[in-house]
Specification:
Chain lengths: 162, 93
């Protein structure tokens, strides 16, 4: 990986991690949505610096869609019944998860991996998605369909109960 | 200056851990949903990184990891849409 790609990678990584931490701590939904949008830009930058241009475009669209959903007028508050000690325990478990994953990354003999840069690659990805792994693509399409139908049914039931 | 596979996996681990932290820390379950795309982004970063740093038998780059990253992005959007829809039914403004 050359210096330009490496700088882009580190800047994008910083943006995405900072955006993720902002989602955890910002108080109002519009700012949280903007933070999640920053995560979308950062993740797209990471994919782009890894020469995965098509994945970057899809990630930017999908994670920006997540940000719009969570910052938009459809947002409702659902209070959790979980107490503070369990939340703190969850935070500690998240930190332990990071330590375990970082340990596995550092001591997993990945230092000798070679970078294979490439072009945008949308044609090759399209061939894999729609020919070689069409079943996986259709499974995700079915998941999206079920999720959207479920969301629409939930909204209709809510409007009917008003 | 360079970034190797270890740096990519570190960033992926950070994104997954931040997503888990968001899901555990926020009292509002709709905000906790934002942890899902973060964790999926971390997993997608690891997949895309490994695909870029792993050589295919022919000597080029693997594409399977990029493909999984694309599918993870779409699945994250679907999960958040379903969660926001269910929260709209049960939640309050």
């Amino acid at each position: 990986m050359d210096s330009l790609h490496a700088i882009g990678f580190y800047v994008s990584a910083a943006i995405s991690v900072a955006g993720g931490l902002s989602v955890a701590f910002l108080p109002d939904r519009v700012r949280r949505g903007m933070a999640l949008g920053a995560v979308a830009i950062g993740v797209a930058g990471i994919y782009l610096s890894l020469s995965a241009g098509f994945a970057a475009l899809v990630a930017l669209a999908c994670y920006a869609g997540c940000a719009l959903l969570l910052a938009g007028p459809a947002y409702r508050i659902v209070e959790s019944v979980t107490g503070s000690p369990w939340r703190q325990l969850g935070a500690i478990a998240a930190a332990a998860l990071f330590v375990a994953l970082a340990y596995a990354a550092y001591f997993g003999d990945f230092h000798r991996a070679t970078y294979f840069g490439g072009e945008f690659g949308s044609a090759a990805i399209g061939r894999r998605l729609f020919a070689h792994d069409a079943l996986a693509t259709e499974a995700v399409a079915a998941l999206v369909l079920v999720a959207l139908v479920g969301a629409a049914a939930a909204w209709r039931a809510r409007d009917r109960n008003r | 200056m360079t970034a190797g596979l270890v740096a990519v996996l570190f960033v992926a681990a950070g994104l997954v851990a931040v997503g888990a932290f968001v899901a555990a820390w926020r009292r509002d379950l709709t905000v906790a949903l934002a942890g899902i795309p973060l964790m999926f982004a971390g997993a997608g970063t690891a997949f895309a990184g490994v695909s870029r740093f792993a050589a295919a038998p022919a000597g080029g780059a693997q594409l399977l990891g990029q493909e999984v990253a694309v599918l993870l992005s779409v699945a994250a959007l679907a999960a958040v849409a379903l969660g926001v829809g269910l929260a709209g039914r049960e939640g309050r403004r």
